[in-house]
Amino acid sequence: MLQRLCKEEEWCRLCKEQMKSSYRDCDKLSAWSIIKAALPYLAILMALALLYFALLLLYERGSPCRRRRCYEPCYRTTQCERRNNILLLDNVRACNARRPIKDVTFGLRCMDVLGLVGERSGKTTLNKLIISQHCLSRGRVYIRGINVNCKRKRYRAYKCIGYCPQKNCFEPEFTGRENLKIFGLIRGIKCRQLRRVTHELADNLSFRRHLRKRSKWYTVSDKRKLSTAIAVLGTPPLIILDQPTAGVEKAHRSNVLHVLKSVNDCGSAILLSSNNIEDFQTLCNRLALIRRGKLVAIGPVASYRNHASRGLILMVKARPHALIHQLCIYSLNREAIINIITRYLLANFGSVYLLEEIQGDMLFYIHNSFVPLARAFQIIEHKRLELSISDFYVKHEDIELSFVTRNFRILR
Fold first, then answer.
1. Which of 17, 27, 131, 272 lies 20 to 30 Å from 283 when distance is taken between CA atoms?
2. Assigned CATH topology for domain 79-307
3. Separation CA 237–CA 270 (nearest Å)
């Protein structure tokens, strides 16, 4: 060891003698100069350490800019409920949709027909959540016990669904027969049976003569019939219909409802969204009232009618020119007559809503369940001539009022 140290000292002495100028500069270097040279590298290391710590903190706790989730108690469905219901919505919520859905829960069993009631309340959004076209914020959707939110299993659930969207989704360049053939093969119908099935379905929906025509040349009515035919093709266990009779002629609307009724008798469950009261009265055995994305009431049609407040609907025709020989006032315009009728109704019934007014024809809703129908008729008939009313009609409130609830204009 001593010998090695001596050799190193001897080498240093020889180097100093040969390179005096170089070693003279090295002797002048101090500890501070070394630290100063290392400072940039230390700063880079500290910045990387802080960045790593920040990323780790975000990974563990989440971003502070993101809205924190509210962990409310979620209603858990049992395995028996999933098995007995073809469609089951468990506390479904969608906050990112155009019309948000708030905690909707209901089930649909075999041969059930559930009607979704509500103007601009999120019915289409709810249908898109069921078919996974929109993402859920919370909750689960089960179709025959299969969780639709699971990407690996949702395709098994799609085999059980027939869907008629609000906007037609068939290929416009294909003919009606070609569209039905494509969707029939996807549904699993055999080729030798497909022609008979499509022709029978087109006959029942009254558009067989247009099967060879391209779909883009169809009328609005025939397009809706074709979309409905695609949805019911093969009699799937669950059929979701969004405005199936919108745009269909009144003469052919009964054909569409008859086809849906026959498919329901074969065992299919139907989820119907419509703004037509005839669809609900013909098909549905249950109704679900949705208001602003929230499920307000659900139950049989009879109980839903009994649950509603029993008001009165008044239809008035104001024709002062027809009663000119019996009136003492000749210079009343239409607005003045409306104001006079409105004040009289408010004075006698209390709570009155004007639903519609077109060229002197007025539709009122009297929100008073204590006035009998005969008494209301006497009150209006007593002042009919003074109010410039040529004709009027009074009836009890019915289910139709739920479609215009959001359009009330409060006069009180």
1. 131
2. Rossmann fold (3.40.50)
3. 9
